[in-house]
Amino acid sequence: MPCLVLNSILFAGLTSIFAAILGMIAFMALISFPLRLHKVAIVGAIACFLMPPFLHAGAWWDIGMKLSLPIATLPFGAMVLSLQLWPIITLLLFASSTRLDSSLLEAAKLSLSNRRTWGHVIFPLLSPALALACLVVFILTLNNFIVPTTFQTYVQIAEIYVMFSSLYDTCAALLQSVPLWIISLFILSTAAGLTRRITTGWANRHVARRLDLSMFPQLCNRPLCLLIFALLLMISLLPSSWRLISSVSSVDMLTTWRLAIPQFVASFIYAAGSALLSCFIGLILGRTALCRQCVPAEWILITPFILSGLFLSILLIALNQWAGAWAWWQGTWLLGVAALTIRFVWIPFKTATATLSQIHPDLLDAARLFAIPSGSIFRHIQWPLLKPFMLAAAWIVYLLALWDVETLLLVYPPGGEPVSLKIFQLLHYGYDAQVAVLSLGLLVMGLLPGGFLALYLRNSRKSIPLNTTTIHEI
Amino acid sequence: MIDLRRIHKNHGDTATLIDVSLTVRRGESVALLGHSGSGKTSLLRLVAGLDPPDSGLVRTEGKIGMVFQSLALWPHVTVRGQLELVLHGPRWNPEARKKRITEVIQIFGIENWADRKPGTLSGGEQQRVALARAFAPGPEILLLDEPLAHLDADDRKQLHPQLLSQFKDRTVLIATHDEEDAKVLAQRSVQMREGRLYTRS
């Protein structure tokens, strides 16, 4: 067991280091772009992250085989996973950088060289965001089942699965989870300190003046930055895209999709159900926790998020066994939706608390002073400000639930197998073309609500001229 | 009326209000003069019931309206919407509400921006909207925290008579650092310094 835990830590650590290097390079390139290209670059980075992990891993397996690379090794697997996770680092750094106070950079610009500005001003200011992003990557990797399994790196999470699925030994499986639990809790306590320090708009209320992104000093010239970023996008996106295109032409896409309709329906029910439910619960808990200043609520809710989905499902099964005949939900879709909701409810909860705490207290005091009923305060004042953020949180939960294998692996009911699990099994038996086609279907299913959401937010931004941060600056 | 007796209020380790006693009679307008951090806003929030005192007694009679220093205009709601939101309850049937909104909009000269949102208005325009919102429900007590701070000298002069006409029969407490505003708008002034209240001659 210690060897497997060490493998897990090594795999997650190496992936985080690779992702941090790639993410920082991408961030420094991105910041040098002309402002109108920022959105395009961000969409590209998000696309890398959204590629189904099965497709990404499979495509790199093929490339490794063709080029005779050492594919069945831990560093190769870590490198492949980091090619999918670097956007987390880039996007968090970018979000954090846009919230910096412009006077900090203006002061540096007057007296420091570009290199010293980056080294002594920008990176120290962004270091909490960088560390937090690395921790997010570390946690996601620690709980990742697909990529290490594909590249034959035996990690603790795989051992837990084997222990449970072959021996049905709940206690042994839970015992095996303890080291991962301890690591996750350690990370949680570190992250709690970092989130307080991170200079995003959510945490930093007292930004005097927002930064003009063109103020960032460029370390190299713009065409070179464009080239670096484009190269990174190509390396991250091309293998899986190429595999998609080639697979689409080699199998009958429509037939494969038609045959998988029950799985697509199941995926949609799990993803949409857990997204709606987690947002509803997250909002209620978020409001209550904020009103009562209940700090432990966040700790309780983040625990299932950072723990492995497998661990959570084993716990749910153990709970069902204990409940016996009372557990009427056993063998229904409800168990899968509940498992995903418990796992991801922290995302909408955090979104709700962060957005609500950003609303200037005077806005609510004014409403209370005019004796507006609390229902109306929520409907007319809080909800319009929360809505875009909660919808975005719902979409993130929807996507995570759509890709999820670990949580549903043990709890899906007969006939309720989602596409992600079908893909996982097909990948295991080497049906690469079908895997690619189903992944494409899943990608479309994931992106469609995102597209609608983007359109909706664009329209609502027209009607709400101020974002929540500027509410403070009225 | 407003009656404050021996109020003490701390924020953390700092005392923001120390032994404050003040009575403002019905129909009287009083200005609280003082520098930033002297405790004017804390006192107004206490009278409004938004913060409780650590010790002492706060007694108010009548409905309270307030203009916040930050203005506290709801950013996603139009000017007309702000007024509609505060005019609720059985007293304000649709017809009465519509009539009152038209009246307030005219008084404060905000007809041209009635369907715009606060973010699209200038500081001075936002200030007028905040005043209109505070006056709209017809409160008996008015608390004005730096009510004219965002306006230029001409706008202030123009708004003074309109405000004074609305003060009639109302209990008004104005926090300001501008002696000129205090002189014009208030019948008497009191000075606030480091959380204590001093009577001015």
Give the biggest beta sheet of chain B: 6 strands, mixed
Strand coverage percent of chain A:
under 5%
Mean pLDDT of chain B: 89
Helix content of chain A: over 70%
How does the overall form of chain B come out from the CA principal axes?
globular
Low-confidence stretches of chain A: 199-209, 463-474
The coarse silhouette of chain A is globular
Mean pLDDT of chain A: 81
Sheet having the most strands of chain A = none
Computed structural class of chain B: alpha/beta
SS strand fraction of chain B: 25-35%
**Major protein interface:** A-B, 24 and 29 residues
In short, what is this structure?
Chain A contains 21 helices and no strands. Chain A is mostly helical.
Outline the structure in words.
The complex is a heterodimer of chains A (474) and B (201). Chain A is mainly alpha-helical. Chain A is 78% helix and 0% strand. Chain A has 21 helices and no strands. In chain A, helix 2 packs parallel to helix 10, helix 14 (309-323) packs across helix 15 and helix 17 packs antiparallel against helix 18 (374-403). The radius of gyration of chain A is 23 Å and the shape is globular. Chain B has 201 residues and is an alpha/beta fold. In chain B, a hairpin with a 2-residue loop joins strand 8 and strand 9.
Topology at a glance:
The complex is a heterodimer of chains A (474) and B (201).
Chain A: H1 2-31, H2 35-50, H3 53-66, H4 74-98, H5 102-111, H6 114-142, H7 146-150, H8 156-167, H9 170-197, H10 222-250, H11 253-259, H12 261-291, H13 296-306, H14 309-323, H15 333-344, H16 346-358, H17 361-369, H18 374-403, H19 419-428, H20 432-463, H21 468-471
Helix pairs in contact in A: 1-4, 1-6, 1-10, 2-4, 2-10, 3-4, 3-10, 4-6, 5-6, 6-9, 8-9, 9-14, 10-20, 12-15, 12-16, 12-18, 13-16, 14-15, 16-18, 17-18, 18-20, 19-20
Chain B: E1 2-11, E2 14-24, E3 29-33, H1 40-48, E4 55-60, E5 64-67, H2 79-86, H3 94-107, H4 123-135, E6 141-145, H5 153-167, E7 171-176, H6 179-185, E8 188-193, E9 196-199
Parallel strand pairs in B: 3-7, 3-8, 5-6, 6-7
Antiparallel strand pairs in B: 1-2, 1-4, 8-9
